[in-house]
Amino acid sequence: MPKLALEADEVCLDDWLRQLIGTLTSLKQFSEFPFDEFHRLVLGLLAELSVSFGSSTPDAGDLRATCGVAGNLEVCATALFALERYLHRFLPRETVDVESKR
Question: Which end of the chain is more exposed for a tag (fewer CB within 10 A), N or C?
Fold first, then answer.
């Protein structure tokens, strides 16, 4: 009987999603950052989790699928991570504090 094994690194995905949520929350403090638009974009891209298929024993009827982050979601998240690092590194601290009090 053929078998299908599905692998997902829950710890890796969980850590990655927590980092993405933290980044969006951090960027929300900047009034110029279009938070609602990026929030909707990220939610829409979550449907694009990567699923790759492969098998070490295809003749035996075993098929292995692996879930992960890839494609447009990965590009969007990487850009958000870089933007957050840039803004917090190069903007004066008082600018960030003033923005967060608005």
Answer: N
74-97 burial by CB neighbour count: b if 16+ within 10 A, else e? bebbeebeebbeebeeeeeeeeee
Buried b / exposed e over 45-73, threshold 16 CB at 10 Å, is beeeeeeeeeeeeeeeeeebeeeebeeeb
Name the pTM for this structure: 0.65
15 band by pLDDT with thresholds 50, 70 and 90: confident
SS3 3: strand
- Say whether pLDDT at 53 is over 80: no
User: pLDDT for 81-90, tens place per residue?
Assistant: 999 999 988 8
Q: Where are the domains of the chain?
A: 3-100
